[in-house]
């Protein structure tokens, strides 16, 4: 199976319509790949918080239309990264914002949409500007089942356990990960691969977003935690790798750690205060 990760920059001086056309052309150049992956919030920039509202679009908006056509023209499964989605409001009006990933089939149909569950920023930025998703999302491809997560989700292993329980064998993670925490990006991608005995395809953004240098370093990790391919740095790059989806089943059979999971453990009780 061949996957291409497109490490795209979100330059604020590039009009978003021009970027959509440019990225669509790059997707078309990947004809012959089985899966193409774009980064998180590449239409606005993951740290361009002030642009989330003005750059928001409905699920089936301009990015949807351009990416559906590109997937169809290239004949590829396309994880089109994520967009700031403006959801519907009950009774009309302006609905909440979501950080929403779009996955297209080779015929250009929307196969899945995932609203990011873990929003970054603590008490600012994405964490307060965007609503949280609630659903785990997997997509069955002919060669493998992908589990969909986004950026900050990478820090929460229970989400990935849920995806594996839902059948995921390949974990796809678009991100806008900052350079200052680049070591965490590589470490966590490898950890999620090892603990879930799954492939991890993690596609980062290039350049600088709203003054925040990006890590880049898109990476593909196999079920043993070995790095199959990694982008050279933080510049725009197409990272293409061949991998064998059947290796997931072989790894899980050879080293069946997942069957030894112990679920439903109770939290430890706090000791009772002394009354003496």
From TrEMBL:
Q: What family is it from?
A: Belongs to the carbon-nitrogen hydrolase superfamily. NIT1/NIT2 family.
Pfam families per the UniProt record, alphabetical = CN_hydrolase
- Kindly indicate whether the keyword Acyltransferase belongs to this entry: no
Keywords from the named record: Hydrolase
**Boundaries of every CN hydrolase domain copy:** 1-245
Q: Which Gene3D superfamilies match?
A: Carbon-nitrogen hydrolase
InterPro entries, sorted: C-N_Hydrolase (IPR003010), C-N_Hydrolase_sf (IPR036526), UPF0012_CS (IPR001110)
Designated name of the protein: Hydrolase
GO terms for molecular function, please? hydrolase activity
Which species is the source of this protein?
Streptomyces minutiscleroticus
CDD domains for this protein? nitrilase_5 (cd07583)
